[in-house]
Amino acid sequence: MQHFRHLDAAVLDRLFLRAPKQIDTAGDLSVIATALGATLYMPATRPDLAETLVKRSAEGVCSLVIDLEDAVADHNLEEAITNTVDSLQKLDSADVFGSLLFVRARNPEQIRRICKSIGPGTSSLSGFVLPKFTAAGGGEFLDAIADASVAHGRRLLAMPVLESPEIVFRETRDSELAAIRALLHRHRDRVLAVRIGATDMCGMFGIRRDRDLTIYDVRVVADAISAIVNHLARTDDSGFVITGPVWEYFADHERMFRPMLRQTPFAEQEAVRFRQQLVSHDLDALLREVALDRANGIQGKTVIHPSHVAAVHALSAVTHEEYHDAVDILESDAGGVRASGYRNKMNELGPHRNWARQTILRAKAFGVTNEGISFVDLLTELAGR
Q1: Lyase as a keyword (predicted)?
Q2: pTM of the model
Q3: Which of 180, 105, 193, 112 is nearest to 147 (CA)?
């Protein structure tokens, strides 16, 4: 898979000092997980499912999920499974431009059923998203994927979703996360990333996040996210990539609070009207949440609308400044402090080293922008303004 592959070569040259690399989806899991970007979910009941998967991949989505869980009513489940199998059998990895294609299955039996139905010759399926993952029940999910990988003769990947009461409620949180960490390590060669189910978490308290707020304003959920990152995203060998929770709004509405986007970057790029469009579609709050995801050790994001993809990917590209700071930090094994080449900060060569390594990984997946190119430039191109 390759990000921004749908942009013209001239546009890529203008935007990027180093264009995004093609990612080997059979290669290193940390590289693939970093490259997930915006993972777009779609209901398995869509009558045009196969065609939509191809269309969204052609538009630059590199990670897609066919949803058999919350997006499908119980009485439509059999129809949805049949549609999923038919769509997977119609497609191969080239049809979706090398994008990763997952199924969110309700239970391990669905994994076994789908893999048996599609047969070992189907190349479009990359793996499964595992909802409501717990230490008690998660092992059966992972064993089903391991068995399917053997039967299909290739690695199928797992992305567990953490959203259960055992993780949300404080009295059980630490012991549950420690047990999940041990379980995931036993299956480390197939666990691609850990996803966060913030909607289910909110539901346990009768909360629905307002579109004027980010998930980090909902304190009970923010506390759970913090604990997940603490247990599972450490930069030693015990860590996994954690992906950001879904942003669920996409239509116009009357605003209660002021927009979250400053006017200056858009005025400098003569994109004031574009900023107004982003604000009217609630994408300013999404951009803010993506920035907060990154600040809290989270990469990529679950999305449910195609309009969200450009925002996530524009903020995923590594800026010219970030890249040169990372290179400066990594070029020496010694400690100490040195001024950034941009003369606006100090780079501490010890504490910032893990950040620098992760930045170089992200640069491989999403590229490095040219000097003077901002997320506004990327977003306007990706959104087709």
Answers
A1: yes
A2: 0.91
A3: 112
The count of C-alpha atoms lying within 13 angstroms of the C-alpha of 192, restricted to the half-sphere facing its C-beta, is: 31
User: What pLDDT, on a 0 to 100 scale, did the predictor assign at position 282?
Assistant: 60
Give the pLDDT band (50/70/90) at residue 279: very low
Tokens of 301: 């994001």
Which one-letter DSSP state was computed for residue 122?
-
CATH classification at residue 79: 3.20.20.60
Beta bridge partners of 195: 161, 243
Coil, strand or helix at 135: coil
Which is more confidently placed, 152 or 237?
A: 152
Of how many residues is the chain composed? Answer: 385
All residues at 6 or more sequence positions from 48 whose CB lies less than 8 Å from its CB, including other chains: none
Q: 211 or 180: which carries more pLDDT confidence?
A: 180
The predicted structure's pLDDT at residue 210:
86
Instruction: Please give the single-letter amino acid code of residue 114.
Output: I
One-letter-per-residue 3-state SS of 225-294: HHHHHHHHCCCCCCCCCEEEEEECCCCCCCCCCCCCCCCHHHHHCCCHHHHHHHHHCCHHHHHHHHHHHH
Higher pLDDT, 276 or 4: 4
- Give the Å distances, CA to CA, from 95 to 49, 63, 90: 13, 14, 9
pLDDT in tens, 342-378: 889 999 989 999 999 999 999 999 999 999 998 888 9
Specify the DSSP element, H or E, that contains 180: helix 170-186
Is 248 a member of any domain? yes
The domain in which residue 244 lies consists of: 24-263+282-309
Rounded distance between C-alpha atoms, residue 203 and residue 199, angstroms: 6
Amino acid at 71: A
Question: How far apart (Å, rounded) are the C-alpha atoms in residues 165 and 159?
Answer: 19
Q: How far is CA 352 from CA 21, 184, 196, 219, 334, in A?
A: 24, 27, 26, 28, 12
Q: Which residue has the higher pLDDT, 279 or 23?
A: 23
Task: Please report which confidence band the pLDDT of residue 280 belongs to, taking 50, 70 and 90 as the band edges.
Answer: very low
Q: Is residue 335 part of a domain?
A: no
Q: How many CB atoms lie within 10 A of CB 60?
A: 21
Residue 79 in domain: yes
54 occurs within a structural domain: yes
Query: Are 70 and 105 spatial neighbours (Cβ–Cβ below 8 Å)?
Result: no
